[in-house]
Amino acid sequence: MAFAFCVLLLQGCAGWQSALDPKGPAAGELAWLIWFFTALCAVVWALVMIALAAPLVMRSRSGDEPLLLDEAAERRKMRVVVSAIGVTAIILIGLTLLSFFANRTLAAIGSETALTIRVTGHQWWWEVRYEDATPSRILTTANEIHIPAGEPVRLLLTSTDVIHSFWIPSLAGKLDLIPGHMNVLDIKADKPGVYRGQCAEFCGAQHANMGTFIIAEPREKFDAWWNDQLQPAAAPTGDEAKAGQYLFLRRPCVMCHRIGGTPAGGTVAPDLTHIAGRKTLAAGTLTMSRGNLAAWIADPQGIKPGSHMPVVELNGDELNAIVAYLEGLK
Ligand code: CUA
Question: Which of 42, 65, 198, 251 has a CA positioned 20 to 30 A from the CA of residue 125?
Answer without folding.
Answer: 251
